[in-house]
Fold:
Amino acid sequence: MTRGPTLPAHRLPHLPAPLDAFNAAPDDEAGAFLLHCLHSLRWARRVSDHRPYPDVESLLAAADEAAYDLSPDDLSEALAGECLPELPEDTYTAATTALTAAHAAYEAKFGHVFVIYLGDASPAECLDHVLAGIRSRLTNDPEEERVVAAEELRRLAGGRLAEKLRGTGNCATSPNTPAPGKCPHPAPRMPHG
Structure:
């Protein structure tokens, strides 16, 4: 059995491998870590309760399966925990204005922040994909959009977990990192040793 790539020792010298730290973490710390990836208590509990995981791929598969089972209330909870992204500092004013207007139109129609997984897009293409995604999804009816948003949340959760446990990059519109004035919850960290 081959394991996924691990973080170089110089990046986390005081911690065991991220998966080992997750597996050994107390329930409340593992839950807080998972809530940073997807803000659904039921999802975090389901994923945490099945520890220990033998490898990152098993954890990602369990997280993916648990995300398919989000109830409407779980989905609402998860969407409420999402943040608007910070735009890169070099984003030009017209793009910022267009994105702000598109987000406002989306939130007015659907009542929650727009989420989209962009793990396959280059960082230079993310803004264009977000704008195109919002415009396209504004044509959905609310039930159709809940299905699409649930799928995007599932993909975001998997991407966030992979990023944290493998150290890979991930381009997402809602990385769950606080934008100034947007989200009050800080990013939890895994326990030390």
Q: What stands out?
A: The chain is about 55% helix and 0% strand. The helical segments are 18-24, 27-37, 41-49, 56-68, 72-80, 93-110, 126-137, 142-166. The CA atoms of residues 53 and 59 lie 6 Å apart. The two ends are 26 Å apart (CA to CA).
